[in-house]
Amino acid sequence: MLKILVTGGNGMLGNELKNHIPKASYMLGKNDLDLSNLNLVDNILPYDYDIIIHTAAYTNISYSENFPQKAFNLHAGVIPFLQSRCKKLIYISAQGKNYNQVYFKTKLKGEKLTLKRETDLVIRTNIYGNGGLVNWALKELNKGSKINGYTDVIFNPLSTLQLSKIIVESFQESGIINTGTKSIISKYDFLKILALKNNLDVNLIFPTKNNKYQDLTVDLKDKYREFNLIDGILKL
Question: pLDDT by residue (tens digit) across 129-181?
């Protein structure tokens, strides 16, 4: 029986992983251990895990910009400490592109630190699931409220269910795995599909721009795992 620790156990991905790795230990945010406090991590985090799956992250881009040191510690600085506590680290990353925002820069640094150990694995992805954009949109649409969707932000996201299956199947792999769907779409089109699949009024969704084109797609390079977007939405 593998001894597994999952960080970010109260997040979208962490909660889904509980269905796939029920006997793992789950770190439920700062109440268990503030991973951005490296002194605490060094003093408190136990040793001897077979695998640590590092899903914890400050996904709010503005938060990372406002607290860059905390973002660096959680996304990158903690990596050597996690590696010292396990035989294998699985690092859940973003799309691997060198954007200017602190979030993306620190995630990319986390990748580089992870890959210094040959046994470890970086999984690049964008996800949706029971939380974040999906929960907000469904809540507002169910109330009959109008919402906006960005037409100039594109991505190829996986559901947390699809990504969880990849993680469990990749315990023996190392290096980089890029994950995404066959569909590269805007956030606006994603919301329309979400509404249709839940029998909600797509006319409540209005196209808008964030005035800064963003390509959040995961690059098709290295090892790549591709899924169907609709399959993931149907299982929400």
Answer: 988 999 999 999 999 999 999 999 999 999 999 999 999 999 999 999 999 99
Residue 222 pLDDT exceeds 80 = no
**Residue 164: both structure tokens together:** 């969880």
Q: Per the structure block, which two tokens stand in for 52?
A: 């640590």
Q: Give residue 219's identity as a one-letter amino acid code.
A: D
What pTM value is reported for the model?
A: 0.94
Compute CA distances 158 → 114, 126, 167, 225, 235, whole Å. Answer: 22, 6, 12, 10, 12
Distance (Å, whole) CA 144 – CA 48:
51
List, in order of start, the domains of the chain with CATH numbers. 1-124 (3.40.50.720)
- Mean pLDDT to the nearest integer, 104-114: 97
Contact by Cβ (8 Å): 177, 223: yes
Q: Give the list of residues 6+ apart from residue 231 with CB closer than 8 angstroms, or none.
A: 162
Q: What is the token pair recorded at 55?
A: 């899903």
d(CA 52, CA 14): 12
Give the residue carrying structure tokens 């963003």: 214
| Amino acid type, 25 | S
Find all residues with CB under 8 Å of 24, minimum gap 6, and list them. Answer: 4, 5, 6, 17, 18, 53
